Amino acid sequence: MKKFWIITGFAAVVVAMVSCNKVRRSPGRAYMPDMSYSRAYETYATREGLQREGVNYSSLPVKGTIARGDMLNIYPNANDSAGYAASAGFSNPLPALSAKDFVEASRLYLVNCGICHGEKLDGNGPLYKDGTGPYPSKPATLVGDPKYMAMAEGTMFHSITYGKNAMGSYASQLSTQQRWMIIHYIKEKQQASTGGNKAATDSMAKAPVDTTKKKM
């Protein structure tokens, strides 16, 4: 009997050593293997590069979906020349900013826009810095330049949403509501620069416009 247990114990040790010595080749069974063993991809890989590798991935949300807590995006214009032209007829759907919302809109502007357009909306942000910064051409002067003083709210929204010239899209950084809040903030700053007179701001559309390409 004692000999039997010695042999059994020796056999168990051998089996354990053999089992631990080999690399497991089978992944076993998984209920959803595509999720358990999903293919890795580089953070900044392009969609075209992923598709060549057989990875069907899109960073865009499903069409028609709304981020939790965001407002319904009722802006209808597409990202094309016709959409840009038609954007001038679209007004800001948000009511005027309250004192609390103005502070938040100011923060959103400084975080996302101020680095180019400047804290004073003069196009002299840290990236330009009177021509000494890394950005070669001056961004749009939102306060003072007749073109942007007279720009419609819908056109600003179109530019922020889709990007314009050197400025990229901010649709992924700012929610629909936040984009409209920033536009309210810009328009209030523009009116303040003309003594709070909206008619004076609108009349600047008749002044000569600089046609050189700028951001927004």
Summarize the structure.
The protein has 216 residues and is mainly alpha-helical.
Q: Counting H and I runs of at least 4 residues, what is the number of helices?
A: 10
Instruction: Label the overall shape.
Output: elongated
User: Helical amount among residues, as a percent range?
Assistant: 40-55%
Kindly state the number of beta strands.
Answer: 0
Low-pLDDT windows of residues? 205-214
Q: What kind of sheet is the major sheet?
A: none
Please state the oligomeric state of the protein chains shown. single chain
Radius of gyration: 29 Å
Q: Can you walk through the features of this model?
A:
The chain has 216 residues and is mainly alpha-helical. It contains ten helices and no strands. Helix 5 packs across helix 9. The longest helix has 20 residues.
List keywords for this structure.
single chain, 216 residues, 10 helices, 43% helix
Topology summary:
Layout: H1 2-21, H2 33-36, H3 47-52, H4 81-86, H5 99-112, H6 114-117, H7 146-149, H8 153-162, H9 176-193, H10 198-203
Helix pairs in contact: 5-9, 8-9
